[in-house]
Design goal:
mainly alpha; 373 residues
């Protein structure tokens, strides 16, 4: 692949030649298509080998969070009695809503629609990571790290919300680099309605708009409007249900790594402590330190640096309950993997293979999870 020769932090697509933009798009289609084929094959194998051909097994009814997306998609407003925290679950409305629309309200098709939406989001997310890596002069093959990350895979196999959230967030980053402000805001708003995690990516882009470009009005729009959209939806839920999703279980955000340290006792044993520590906590610390040193040295902030500072910071302040549950921490770590790849591609490309190797090996946990489903 011919290397791009532009400044890695160019914010506008006009900075790339027509040939270079076309090259990035071609790689996005290739890698997204590859992820779709491999993901679909893995789903078919799991259905035949483990789930007796029943797509509803992906929802983990009465066992894990995917059941709530299924209940919302199937029963609509009548799903409330089936939800453990109605306003909290309904806040993440986009995934079950899209599945309900695609299934045309048919219960027989709904379980397939939930899988289908996530398969498409999985492929789109991988393709967009490839696109952005090419624009940062890195190999698009590193996008397979995103596809192999265990957090993305458990979302795919358990009917969860994060893949759709991240697909819209990654599309928003592409729109921002093309200087499409309105589209950037709209995509981040959709990402936030998929899951509030999307606001962390929006915060990273807003940070760059403010400190990297000096466009504070643009920064407030990128960070504030999607938040306001989510807040309006939360207000509607409050008027309907009389509660706000301000806290769920032990979900209070904590100072950096306090949640991980407090969770060590809850985890019990070496392996549960090492899994989130090696694959999430350690990379988050190293990426944060590296990004901060770069900001201090250069007295400026690039887009990839801003993204990883927020993505890594989001992992570092995860609550104890998230750290103590491996699947939950892997899901929340998805933005760290994507933004970490971007940052290393831009500023420390020689370290990119090591990070990719570390995060890709997390795929080894997938068979264990499927067996336990």
């Amino acid at each position: 692949m011919r290397q791009l020769t532009r400044n890695p932090d160019q914010s506008q697509s006009q900075a790339l030649s027509a040939e270079e933009s076309a090259q990035a798009r071609r790689w996005a289609w290739r890698m997204g298509g590859l992820a779709l084929i491999v993901g679909a094959a893995a789903v078919v194998i799991a259905l035949q080998v483990r789930f007796d051909g029943d797509p509803l097994r992906f929802a983990n009814l009465d066992r894990y969070d995917g059941q709530f997306a299924y209940y919302i998609a199937r029963y609509g407003v009548d799903a409330v009695p089936r939800l453990d925290a109605p306003s909290f679950r309904l806040m993440r409305i986009l995934y079950p809503l899209l599945a309900r629309l695609l299934s045309l309200g048919s219960p027989a098709l709904l379980a397939w629609a939930l899988i289908g939406v996530n398969l498409i989001a999985y492929a789109v997310g991988t393709g967009l990571v490839a696109y952005l890596l090419v624009t940062w002069q890195a190999s698009p093959w590193y996008s397979l790290t995103y596809a192999a990350w265990i957090g993305c895979l458990v979302v795919l196999f358990m009917d969860l919300n994060e893949l759709l959230c991240m697909a819209f967030a990654l599309a928003a980053i592409v729109a921002y680099r093309r200087d499409r402000l309105g589209l950037t805001i709209a995509l981040f708003a959709l990402s936030a309605l998929g899951k509030e995690m999307g606001l962390t990516v929006a915060a990273g882009v807003a940070l760059h708009a403010a400190l990297g470009k000096g466009k504070w009005g643009e920064a407030f729009a990128i960070g504030g409007i999607p938040f306001a959209v989510l807040l309006a939806w939360v207000a509607a839920l409050y008027l309907w249900l009389g509660e706000v999703p301000t806290q769920y279980g032990n979900s209070t955000l904590l100072p950096p790594l306090v949640g991980y340290v407090m969770g060590l006792e809850v985890m019990g044993g070496l392996r549960p402590a090492v899994e989130p520590g090696l694959w999430l906590a350690l990379p988050a610390v190293l990426l944060t330190v590296g990004a901060l040193i770069q900001v201090i040295k250069t007295r400026g902030i690039t887009l990839a640096t801003a993204l990883v500072l927020v993505g890594a910071g989001w992992v570092l302040i995860m609550p104890t309950a998230t750290w103590a549950h491996a699947i939950a921490s892997w899901r929340v770590g998805i933005p760290l993997v994507a933004t970490g790849l971007f940052y290393l591609a831009e500023s420390h490309r020689r370290l990119l293979p090591y990070a990719a190797a570390l995060w890709s090996t997390s795929v080894m946990f997938l068979p264990i999870i499927i067996v336990q489903m």
